[in-house]
Amino acid sequence: MRRSIDELRTFYGEPTGQAARRLLARRLEEAWGEANGCDILGIGYATPWLDAFVGARRLIAAMPGAQGAELWTAGGRNRAVLADERRLPFPAGAFDRVLLIHALEEADDARLLLTEAVRALAPAGRIILAVAARGGMWARSEKTPFGHGRPFSRGQLERLVREVGLEPTAFAHTLYVPPWPPLLGMAEGFEQVGRRVIPGAAGVILLEARRHAYARIQPSGQAELSAAAAPALQPQPAGRTRIR
Fold first, then answer.
1. How many whole angstroms separate alpha carbon 2 and alpha carbon 107?
2. Label partner for 93 (CA 20 to 30 A): which of 60, 143, 182, 243?
């Protein structure tokens, strides 16, 4: 059962949710920047992050029917739609970028939802899946949206994207700080230590993928690359790119 739109909105208005929003936003900004001139679709509950893509040509938030939808954006034209996650109301190839957050974990059929997201993705488009990390502390806390539904390991997420015709091209981890308000002030320190020393302790995995036809240029190795390569997410001789 999906978390309701009221629960999600309340969480992201609280200190714990604000910290999660900020840390996730940093990873997304490093991956896509302002996505100038792109048509972007957010699936699940992506509105806390979509406004950051100020250079985008079009932004749409598709919210699953079992979750409910909210008016977005306040004071402007509504860009949110209540959607059947088994059949998204968009033509094939309509979006250059697709972002899934709070989408896969509580889906009745994660593969079917992702198949629909891929259908809406342009042939050369890019897709990012942000999911609760199996084994991370956020997946163990029912006080956050990440503590509901099915969390994923990196291997499970990679298998899922390949099943729908995508090839993983980049990945990242974030939310190393435990979801406890007294520790949120040390979130940056947890991020720096966690990314260098204990990546398995992250609360969220982000994986970027493209269609197979465009992913063949990517190296097949597993090495993680430097932060300098991350914003463009270009293939490097050392191996697969990491979203830092």
1. 8
2. 243
Quickly tell me which residue has 């999911």 as its tokens.
131
Q: Would you say 215 and 209 are in contact if contact means Cβ atoms under 8 Å apart?
A: yes
Tokens 């609760």 correspond to: 132
Q: Give, for 211, the enclosing helix (H) or strand (E).
A: strand 204-211
**Whether 14 contacts 75, CB under 8 Å:** no
**Residue in this structure with the two tokens 């604000």, named with its chain if needed:** 18
Mean pLDDT for the stretch of residues 213-240: 35
At residue 24's C-alpha, the angle toward residues 23 and 28, to 5°, is 120
The three-point CA angle 154-235-213 to 5° equals 80
Predicted local confidence at residue 58, as pLDDT: 94
In contact, 132 and 203? CB cutoff 8 Å: yes
Sequence-ordered alpha helix ranges (H) in 120-181: 154-163
Judging by DSSP bridges, how do beta strands 80-83 and 95-101 pair with one another? unpaired
For residue 226, pLDDT beyond 90: no
pLDDT tens per residue, range 1-21: 899 999 999 999 999 999 999
Tens-place pLDDT, residues 59-71: 999 999 999 999 8
Sign, CA dihedral 109-149-121-241, equals negative
Torsional class of 37: left (φ above 0), alpha (ψ -120 to 50), beta (otherwise): left
**H-state helical runs in 41-167:** 47-50, 110-119, 154-163
CA distances from 42 to 51, 82, 95, 157 (A): 11, 12, 10, 18
